[in-house]
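Collaborator request log, item 7. Partner lab (contact: R.S.) asked for a structural prediction of Ceramide kinase to inform their binding assays.
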Amino acid sequence: MGAAEPLRSVLWVKRQRCAVSLDPARALLRWWPSPGPGAAVPGAGACSVPVAEIIAVEETDSHGKPQGSGKWQKMEPPFAFTVHCVRRARRRRWKCEQVTFCGADEQLCHLWLQTLREQLDKLTCRPKRLLVFINPFGGKGQGLRIYERKVAPLFALAAISTEVIVTERANHAKEALYEMSVDSYDGVVCVGGDGMFSEVLHGLIGRTQRMAGVDQNEPRAALVPCPLRIGIIPAGSTDCVCYSTVGVNDPKTSALHIIVGDSLPMDVSSVHHHGALLRYSVSLLGYGFYGDIVKDSEKKRWMGLIRYDFSGLKTFLSHHCYEGTVSFLPAQHTVGSPRDGKPCRAGCFVCRQSKQQLEEEQKRSLYGLEGSEEVEEWKVICGKFLAINAANMSCACPRSPRGLSPAAHLGDGSSDLILIRKCSRFNFLRFLVRHTNQGDQFDFTFVEVYRIKKFQFVSKQVEDEDSDLGERGKQGLRQICSQHPSCCCSAVSSSWNCDGEVLSGSAVEVRVHCQLVQLFARGIEDGP
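Returned to partner:
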């Protein structure tokens, strides 16, 4: 077989005589029934698997059992080898499937083994060594068990070496990434929920900026993209990031995406307050309703996962609204809009095209061909809001399969800013229900949505602090009003829900950094 010539043979698969073909040019392994002499033409029963989705190839007996340690040795007749590959199952799940090929010629089987392994060795995007952080307390406390039973065997099969660190306290992973050398790793894997992912994210971004000499506390600083990819093994309460990037919360599916070396660029938002970095956000940054929920639920951790339902109902009945000013810079570089009905999917055209247009826009600004940010047109909206949400992704989860912003994109350099103005409880309930069905959740007069690349928020409380006249009287009136939530009066201030973590700050500045990190994922796949 030449460098680009297909390898073709007749082998046996599950007691069925099959023609088997490996086309290096197309990187595709195919087999189909061939009952007669020679290799028949592929028909309806043909099967195929891309080489990129082959996990491993090993010597086995005719029943698929491994032969010794995997080193070259004399086979026992009938001679066989097994291909471990990805099989797509229902609801976007991936499974590890085994296909055993048998033949009477030992040299032929060795040739197939050698050729397939050479093809796998050419896949340089695949990780060889991973750093794994496991949160043993998150979710239902099953992180370590999930990793040992479902993930570790797949990594071993793919010959991926790992260093495992079981976290012992909050920010353990973040601190470790700041201190240890990560040059020998091809990626970092976190086993846990969104909180665990956030720790790894902050550790990697912070380390990268420190090494590059970038001041993270400067809101206008151009952050340096992280060189290491992040893998997420879902084992938390919500696992929103995993669900929005893979389409399912399944540990084996996520592990297989890591093994095949998938790569998905993702935007990150920086949140600053008075010239200091507060936090990074990749999914939801919410003020008002969602901020109140997460703040109240933190006080009820003893209730377990049901605390989110309890705090959600309590916050809904309180019906607080918050007065303030939102200023934002529209994302002119994007090719989509929040209401175009085009969700972010694998190989997303919107993300690729928006990234290119953003780079061209930045080059024109750099060379003075167009105005810089100082002269770009900011829009200002004042009022009373039940919620202010900035979604970098759809924020989908099993309870809300389409998410808070179904058409938000992972890597287009923008965020969807959703403003829910003061309205009745009934109308707000209608809005919330839309998140669980196929209705357009933005089709309300009290809801506004914008695709932006920067925004600022200042609460009325902070604005009033600039004036000394009547401040005590205003504060007293607001406190009296907040004790009667049924009238939907303005409360003093809320907190921010930053990817599930409580963030204080009634005056924030948020900026989207295009494709700052990369995940071991390929985006949600549609179709069979």
